[in-house]
Amino acid sequence: MPRPKSKSSDKTRSGSGLLRLLRALAVSGALAILAAASGVGWFFYQAEQPVYAADKPLDLVINYGTPARGIVALLQANRIEINETLFLGYAAFRGVERQLMAGVYQIEPGISQRKLVERLSRQDAGSTEFRILEGWTVEQTLEALRRQPEIRLDLQAQADRPEAIAGSLMLEARHPEGWLYPDLYVVPKGSSALELLRRSVAIQRQVIAREWEKRAQDLPYRSPYEALIVASIVEKETQYLGDREKVAAVFTNRMRLGMPLQADPTVIYGLGKEFAGDITRKHLKKDTPYNTYTRKTLPPTPISNPGPRAIRAAMNPANIRALYFVARGDGSSEFSETLKEHNQAVDQFIRRVAVAKGSK
């Protein structure tokens, strides 16, 4: 006759099973923690690894409005060895995935992923910033560099000699105007101003060459330099969205007909320090190489440093027959095909405004 099971032996077996389960859970938890710790360690290890192995620094131009994934694609296209998930994951960990900014960045060989994220989010303590504005002259750029104590100004002795500056920048032209690429530059503290401007020239050359290849047919320019001259005038005449191409069309239409450009900004540039803020009839009649009222030719050099949008407009003008334009007072311009229409626009937007102001 079988002996009945002991309740105490059942409890012993149950307790042993529970103990084994707890031990298994403890081992699994420990392994999970170890795996997580290893993953975190590997994540931070990767952040410190070099991602650019070239033998010279890279100028990385990130355009305004480029999304984070677009920045990753740009980095990868420039032989910066990053993994999109890891790069954006680290940026998210640092809380800057939405703060990767447009600008021109100097990327040195051996830079780590961590340092790259810090630089693109403007959190690199070893870097400083300098902006060249669209439409600035070389003189204005040098003046701004004098006010930037974290960039070494090594062009001081040449500041009043354009041909010397052009030589230092290794330009074929004897004048440096027009050859600086306007943007915000992020460079190491203590950088050379001369080196920064040389890099700016290199980028501007690329922009001009690229846009010249994509230019419209039958333009009245004999060279990319003439297109650059017109772009520099367009930049000074308007930055209103959509008007650059129309202003460029007015100038190219006039060039085809042999008409003078009659652009006030060229006159002002030719006056130099003589210009005190208000252009007069006397100024318009004073003949200088830059007076496009007294001369039918283009100015001998650009009058500003145009941005890529102005360069693109000069090489792809709007398909309009306008020969005149006048400012409306809100940043935009009114375009006319005939002198009669232009005079009516001047009456509407200039003379009546002047009369109204005088009656107050």
Quick one: biggest sheet?
4 strands, mixed
Q: What is the topology, as strand order, of the major beta sheet?
A: 1-2-5-3
Note the run of SSEs as H and E.
HEHHEHEHEHEEHHHHHHEEH
Mean pLDDT, nearest integer? 87
Number of helices: 13
Distance between the termini: 125 Å
Low-confidence stretches: none
Descriptive notes:
The protein has a 4-stranded mixed beta sheet, with helices on both faces. It has 13 helices and 8 strands. The model has no long low-confidence stretch (mean pLDDT 87). A hairpin with a 5-residue loop joins strand 7 (324-327) and strand 8 (333-336). Helix 9 (243-257) crosses helix 12. The chain is elongated. The longest helix is centred in the N-terminal third of the chain and has 41 residues, at 7-47. Among the domains are: 58-120, Dna Ligase, domain 1; 218-358, no CATH class. Helix content is 49%, strand content 9%. The protein has helices at residues 7-47, 68-77, 84-93, 113-120, 138-146, 162-168, 193-213, 224-237, 243-257, 264-271, 281-285, 308-315, 339-358; strands at 58-62, 103-107, 127-131, 151-152, 184-188, 191-192, 324-327, 333-336. The protein has 360 residues and is α/β, with parallel strands linked by helices. The protein starts with 6 loop residues before the first helix and ends with a helix.
